[in-house]
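hiii, so i know i said id send this last week but things got crazy w the move. better late than never?? heres the sequnce for the chain we talked about at the cafe, plus the structure i predicted for it. fair warning i was half asleep when i ran it
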Amino acid sequence: MLACAGDRRLIPSLLEAPTAEDKPCYSIDTVRKVRRSLHKDDRLFFLIGVDAFLDLPHWKEYRRLLNLVDFIVVSRPGFDVDEIRKVVPEEMSLPGDRIDRPLVPSSLRRGLRGGAGRLDTIRLRHSTLYVLRGVQMHVASHAIRQAIGSGRTVTGLVPRLVEEYILKEGLYGPHRLTSEVRAPGHAPLQSGCGGM
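okay and structure toks below
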């Protein structure tokens, strides 16, 4: 929500907001709730980074999730799309499946940088995986969590408001940052966050 705060086209949802019971919220439950609100012919897409998608087998009812929703998997430069196939149980794949590579329509390319425009399509028995290539993000979310957990700053890797929130809430590890991790092309910035 903080990462998109400056974009008026995006509206935050409280669908996965913490409850009074403080029970965990699982993606399968969220997808079921959303599907109940849709019309029969509506399509639902689950936008996810490639590293999170590779972790899908550890999610609650992940096979059911793969059947209920189409995924848009945002890849990163140099990633092998065949790694994504390994996540899908064999019985869910179509016999003789192949990867289609249509061009992304220009209406969907707006806002994508670095020549984004290839969309690899992996068809499953009940859903489709769309692998979006060309998004120029050279760092994965798990690397950001690791950096913070080991006390390094992530200035330039995440929006400023997101970094401030992570540090304020003490997410992923220590509060005191000792060295930096930075996005390619960004000058190193020192950050002494002390006791935030």
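btw Residues 138-196 form one domain. thought thatd interest u
miss u guys!!
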